[in-house]
Amino acid sequence: MNLPPRVGVIGSRISACDMSTAVGLLEARVHDGGGGYVCFTNVHATVLGRRDRSFREITNSSFLSVADGKPIYWLGRAKRNRAIGHVPGPDFFITAIRQLPQRRHFLYGSTPAVLSQLVSQLERVLPSVQVCGTLSPPFRELTPEDKQQHYRIIRESGADFVWVGRPFLYAAIAGGEAGVARAISLLHAEIDRDLALLGIRSISEITPDLVRKF
After folding, report:
1. Alpha-helical segments (H) within 126-210
2. Is this model's pTM higher than 0.85 or not?
3. Is 77 helix (H, G, I), strand (E, B) or coil?
4. Which of 69, 137, 131, 59 is nearest to 96 (CA)?
5. Distance (Å, rounded) from C-alpha 119 to C-alpha 125?
6. Nearest partner of 136 among 157, 156, 116, 122, judged by Cα
7. Nearest partner of 5 among 88, 82, 91, judged by Cα
8. Looking at the 3D structure of the chain, how many domains does it have?
9. pLDDT at residue 26, as a whole number
10. How far is it, in rounded angstroms, from Cα 181 to Cα 198?
């Protein structure tokens, strides 16, 4: 399979493809019996990748790493690569389900209530959707037994695509309690930076004149 070239954005390698091409590549990958994962790369992921080599290697080793964030898309276009498109994760999720009605989808992450609501909404908007399973993992470090059970449930569901949500879940799977703690520290640092850029020191100091409605 010929994959699209990648565009370098401060170390992260972004796939030069648009929404339609990305969906087509996913279908071809499944049809050929291949696997892999897709990263939806925004500014935060790119900046984190610049600071954390191991994280950057994860996104750069993906089957596709698409421009989820508009600034990433703009930077890619600025490098005169017209093939790159803006591919937001939520839009891609709906587009893939709509264009690939023959494929089976498994939803992994969040809470049982949220998953149930999401499935109901999908079945209402896209009656042809095939959701073959959902799983809400416990919000703690997964044991080896947990992981084996989850792998078995997903395999036995016959899923073609597994959609994973919730950043703290990624952290828990990757690093357990330490991973979640690191994710929290990253978000805390991001909030501190945003407050500093606004010239304030706490959320309580945010006033209406600092907020712009788009």
Report:
1. 144-157, 167-198
2. no
3. helix
4. 131
5. 10
6. 116
7. 82
8. 3
9. 93
10. 26
Q: Is 2 left (phi over 0), alpha (psi -120 to 50) or beta?
A: beta
> Which of 100, 126, 145 is at the close of a domain?
100
Closest by CA to 68, choosing from 97, 28, 38, 96, is 38
Looking up tokens 């357990």 gives: 176
What type of residue is 164?
V
pLDDT in tens, 135-161: 988 776 678 898 889 989 998 999 999
DSSP string of 26-68, one letter each residue: HHHHHHTT----EEEE-HHHHHHHHH-HHHHHHHHTSSEEEE-
Q: Which of 67, 72, 119, 73 is nearest to 89 (CA)?
A: 67
Host domain of residue 195: 167-214
- Token pair 């209402």: residue: 124
Is residue 50 domain-shared with residue 116, that is, in the same domain? no
Q: Which of 73, 100, 127 finishes a domain?
A: 100
Contacts of 73 (CB under 8 A, 6+ apart): 67, 84, 85, 86
